[in-house]
Each structure stands twice: as structure tokens, then as C-alpha cells.
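Homework help board

Subject: predicted structure for assignment chain

Our instructor gave us this sequence and asked us to write out the predicted structure in C-alpha cell form, then describe one feature. I got the C-alpha cells but I'm not sure how to describe them. Can anyone check?
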Amino acid sequence: MEIQENQHDQASSETESVRSGRVGFSGPLSGPSSGPLSGPLLGGNKKSSKKSARFKNEEYVEITLDVRDDSVSVQNIKGGDLETSILASRLERQRPSSLGSQLSFRLRQVSQELRRITSSSSKRFNKDDRSKSGAARALKGLQFMTKNVGSQGWSEVEKRFDQFSVNGALPKSSFGQCIGMKESKDFANELFDALARRRGITSDSITKAELREFWEQITDQSFDARLQTFFDMVDKNADGRITEDEVKEIITLSASANKLSKIQDRADEYAALIMEELDPDNLGYVELYNLELLLLQAPGPNPSTNLTTNSRILSQLLSQKLVPTKEPNPIKRFFRGIEYFIEDNWKRIWVVLLWLAICAGLFTWKFIQYKNRAVFEVMGYCVTAAKGAAETLKFNMALILLPVCRNTITWLRSRTKLGYIVPFDDNINFHKVVAFGIALGVGVHALSHLTCDFPRLLHATEEEYEPMQKFFGEEQPDNYWWFVKGTEGWTGVVMVVLMAIAFILAQPWFRRNRLNLPKSLKRLTGFNAFWYSHHLFVIVYGLFIVHGYYLYLTKEWYKKTTWMYLAVPVILYACERLIRALRSGYKSVRILKVAVYPGNVLALHMSKPQGFKYTSGQYIFVNCSAVSAFQWHPFSITSAPGDEYLSVYIRTLGDWTSQLKTVFSKACQPSNENQSGLLRADMMKGENKPKLPKLLVDGPYGAPAQDYKKYDVVLLVGLGIGATPLISIVKDVLNNIKQYQALEEGSGGDSNNGNARKPFATRRAYFYWVTREQGSFEWFRGVMNEVTENDKDGVIELHNYCTSVYEEGDARSALIAMLQSLHHAKNGVDIVSGTRVKTHFARPNWRNVFKRVAVNHANQRIGVFYCGAPTLTGELKRLSRDFSRKTTTKFDFHKENF
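My C-alpha cell output:
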């Protein structure tokens, strides 16, 4: 390239500065094979004679500039097109204060852009083609400002500038927070450097005007502008070329911004992969058009995620009003809300209404009975209220045991049709409702006695007290101590104290250690405190029977009905505990494999106890005497019924699980390259087998997820460790489909085998697993790969979502998406999950998920099974309800108690 400068004769010898002059700027329009460009400022025309030889047979553009003290203007352009003119106009945008220092930089920059335009003209995509195939998807990418970041607009950015600026300038360290990228500080710093390089800014701070320029560029909706900005971030030395080291740096930066540590560790390998794809000629660098080519040719979404239905059904669904409109008439709106509520909760409603009716009936019966007795004349309505509440207490103290009789509930839901009218899945919730009824009854009973009828008895006249002598003795009580020291008194006080302890420690903020308490008090909370305090019920029930026998106002034994209420439930519960103890005693299991995974997850593979049969979705209780001889904790079964082993995945969230992980980790060794997990112990291999703690299991027990067999199509949604019961279902569905196909083909499969199971209804499954940590995908990597390898007909759709990665289209995840597509196309393995299933970024659009399922399965009933944190329960339940009412597809929502 040649640059000519014809100086005017007005130069000053004192300052040796250029006051005015015209600069002729010319450069070859050559391909990428030409050598590096340079743009020195030369005095006179000493090298002008070289131009013809150097530019021989090459098309070039000549730009003539008029350079003065306070301005630079373009005088003439020879050659080029409209885009060339736009690039040349950038030379006029100079700040007077930095004109001399930036001119050389700006000339070199424009020459690089001219070279890019022409060198890629024969290779890049036409802009007209960008509306086709993968181009449309690429055009949505490289968004530096998305709806989640910086959506407040310039006014909000300007306010933050005023907040973070120092002496009228914004430091580089505050740039990310100012534009809304406070969670991606390193990425924001690189973006700052790229924008500053383009403008020749060398300072680590910028003015508000410069920030406005930065903002306009990063919010530019033009794909070319976004592509150039991203290219500048990678191109650290601004030479128009990206080397492998620069690719490695941006991979590391993108992986760090998206919390993908495993990609950071393999940045060298992935940088080589990109260079191999974009630099087939081994030039050692790639240019802008290569990056554009990669974006525009990036593979589209997995074919399995596309809608597989005709356009007529799709258009019908889209035309329906899936978002409910607000009824203008408040009366109609009120009654419609009641109708929907009853429709969704009729099972719960009739059970709760029956319970309330029984409690009200018992209270009224006892109230009327005591109103007609002589004690009413002395104690009044206080005693009637106390005795009415006591009668409900007897009933509720008996009833509260039934929801925790797990074997009975499992048998009822599995072997009877009661599940159609009784919400067995809400057994724990009903247990809590009854506990609230007990607390209310205790409050009414105790307060009525202590604050009302006992004071009235103490202050009664001799004439009024005379009818009470047969109940309280000839000598009238003279203080409260008389009531407390009696059997009726101290048993009642102790029961209230023990109940209060159990009730308080059962609350979520104590049971899950959500309160920020001093260390000394924190030891008294947590799951252990909840577990042990709940077992105080043994003492409470003993005192309750004694309290109900020594009554002040009832002397006949057949009228002391406390034991009558409790007899059947207590015997049933005692039998339950006896069965558990006997069953767990001979269900000692042999540990086959132990693995410790990222995210504090412990995986245990055990031998199946003899005669142990279960259904996917059920759970077992696990006891480890090395941690606690008394505690039993429930965990969902991850293995499928057809597997030869029994497995559970345990996340350490409390005292017991943390200690369990510690005990098993001592027997593990670091895993090798071919194994998943951080630590492993495989008891099936090798001679030096470590000594492992003894485990006991009890179960299986019924859970909502086991009802998947009733549905032809299931939608499985798991959050984090909540995917454990759903993984078992996925494996079982795959085995079921294989068996069903074998029966249809007439081969019979294993039908002659006594262990063969009858195929169930499920023929299609959609599995969505959402987790925020990349390491979580190691938990079920083997299962994912097994399904993809064996599911030849695509009956099971697997969708993994990593929420730590910014959504598709965000510039912070753009390179990860490109790398993911390249690696999966070449090796068939996803770089995020390490499985054959491609990982989606950010959170799913659940409305679109339901829409796809509804379109593909019109006029069918879909079982929606969710296991995870309660944050998503409301949305999934609402979508199930809305789509069931607005489309021909019906969704039945089931929530696992997690």
C-alpha cells in the first residue's frame, strides 16, 4: 500500500507541525493471501514511484484527505463502492484534541477494512441470503445488549455514569456495571478495550460522550456492526487477523463469563478445532469473513426439536388464545375463577371439607353436651369451648398418624382405585393441615382452661362450688398450682411444651437452616433437630392417653374416649414401624459402586435385596449406621426396574448427607480419564477392595412420578438433583418400548421369561433437565448416552439446559455456541454436557415447550411430572391448566414432593 502526502509551504520551523495538507490514501483490493498492510506517513513523494510496480494488475482505491489543525475531510475517492465511501467517512470523525495522534491509527484501520471488504467479496455470503436457513438464526446472534442486560436504555446508563464516574470520566473497572454487565466484568473489560482500540483511545477511562459512542455501537442492531465488534474483541492487536492464541483467549473469556470451567481447561484443544475449521490452508490466522462464514453456516437446532406436524394444525393452535384474557365482568370473572379452582382441586376440596365437617360435628356435639351439665352454671361457655376443642384433638391426634403410614398409602395407591378420588400425593401436606388443626385445638383447650373456667372455679362462691365437689373435692382449690400439680395439669403442660418444640423445628426456616442464627443456636436447628424432635411424639402420645384418663369432669371409664380414638391408628402405625424394622433388617445391601460428582453429589450403586420390586418414580429410605443408627432418609430411585442394581443419587444439603459423603469419600480414589466423577470406588473390579460402611434400605414407597404408566405421552421436567426419579422413568420407558416392539413383531422378546413385565401405555417421552452447573451433567452422562444410542426411533426427546450460560443470541455465549456446533458435528459430543445430547443455553421457554407437545399430540392426554424446587411449580401448573382449557390436548400436572 502507498500513502502520499503533499505538504503545503506553510509549515512552521518552530513547531514542525502540519497545519494543512492533503493526504492521498491508496491501497490494493487484494485477497487474504497478500502481505500485511502498513500505512506510514511519508514526506513528499519519495516512494510514489513504487506504486505502479506494487499495485500492478491489482485493483486499488485512492482516498484524498484534506488535513487541517481542527479537521480532516475527504476530498476525493477513486474506486470502491458505497461501503468504501462509508469507511472513508470515518476518517472525518476526529476529536480536535487527538487529531495528530489518531490520524495514523485511523488510516491503518480504514485500509484494513477496505482490504476485508474486497478480500471476502468472493467468499462471503450475500446479504440477500441472510434470510435463509441458518442465516436467520445467525442474524439473531451476537447481541451485546439483550432483554436481560441493559434493556433500560441510554437514560439508565447515563444515570449509572453519573453514579460511577470520577472527575467526569468513567473508569474501565466500572464500565461493565454501568452498561448492565456487572456479572461479566472480564467480558465487559475486553469489550471496553475493543471499543477503545477502534477509536484510538488509550486511557483507562472515558467521558460521557465516548460512553455514548460505545453504547450506540454495542446496541447497533446491524449484524455487520455486531460482527465487527466481536471480531475486534478477539483481534487484540487490531491487525485484521485472528491468531490461534487470540482464539484461545476469547474462548477462555467466554467460558469464564458463562461459568464453564471444563471448557476453560480445554481451551487449547478447542482453539485448535476452530483454526482447523476456519484456516484449512494453515495460514496461521483467520479473518472477518471466516468468522461470518462460521456464523452463517452454523448448524441449526436439533431436528428432534422441530415440530413434526402439518401446518394446518400448527396454525390452528397458534390462532387460539393461549394467554387468558381478563373477563370485564367482575361477577363472571369471580365465578369462573371458582370454577377453575374446583376443577383443579376437587380431590383436595372434598377431603378437607370432610375433615372440617367431622371436626365441627365433634366440637358441636361436645359443646352441647357440656352446656346441659351442671358445670356450665359455674364455668360457663369456657368449659364447653375447652371440651369441644378437646374432642377435635382426640380425632386429629389419631388422624395425623395415617398420612405417614407409608406402606399403607403405597398399597392403597398401587392396588386400589382410591387414587382416583383421594389425593395420596398430598399425604404430607394433609399431615401438616392436621398438625395445624391440633395446634389450634391445643390453643383453644389450654386458653379456655387457664384464662377462663379455672379462674371462675377459683372465685366461685361456696354455694356455686357445691355441685363441683364431686369433681374437684370438698375443699375448693385456691390457686393455679392446685391444677398444675395434678396428673391432669402436669401432663397437659409437658405435652404443650413438647408439641411446641416439634412444631417450631418442623417449620422450613428451622428445618432447612434458613435463619441466620448464632453458631450455638444453629446446632439446635436443621434436619437432625427436626427428626429427633418429631420422635418426641412417642412421649406425647403416652402423656395424651394418661391425660385423657385422669379427667376432672368425667369419672366413668367408658366415657373416657381418648384411647378409643387412638387404638386403631396407633396399632396401624406401630405395625408399620415393625414391618420397616423387620424388612430393613434383612434388606442389607452390598455396595457395588460409589462415585462423588461435582455439585456435592454422591452416587451409590447397590445390589438388589432379594425379592425387591419397585416402579420407576418410587423412593426408598436409607440408613447408614456409621453416620446414625436411628436416622432414615428418603431418596428417589434412579435405576430402572429392569436394571440388575439399585442406585440413588444424594446431594449433600444437611448434616446427615454431608457426613454420609465424608464417610464414603474416604474409601474412594480419584477417577481416571475414562470415568466420570471426581472420586470413585468400584467394588466389582480389582482385588484391593476398600472397606465401605454398611447400608440398610427400606421401601419402596409410592410417589407421584410412578403414575407415568397411565399416559401415552409424558413430559418430564427436572431441576438439578430433582431429575433423579425422572431418569429412572426415562430408562424404563426405553425398555418398555423395546419390549412392546418385540411383542408387535411377534418375537415375544422375553415373554417366556418369568421376570418379563407387561408393557405399559407410554409410547413417547419428553425429558427436560435444567441445571445451573456444568459439572451436574456428569451425574447422568451414562444414561444420556445410553438413551441416544439405543433410541433409534427417537421416541424419547432429551433436552439439557445449562442456566449459567447466557441465552442464545447473547455475544457472551456466541463463541460457545459456535464451538458447540463444530465439536458436535465432528465428534458427536456436546462440549457443555459431555454427552451426545446438545445442551441448550439459559432457561427454557416453557410456553413454547407446552405448545410443541400440544401440537404434536392433539386430542391426547399428557402426563406432566415435575421434580425440583417449588419455584417452577406454579408456572408449570398454570401452563398445564391453560393448555388443557384452550387446546384439544389435556395436561395432567403431578408435583413430586421435593
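Reply (TA_rk): Your C-alpha cells look well-formed. For the description, you could write something like this. The mean pLDDT is 77. That's the kind of observation they're looking for.
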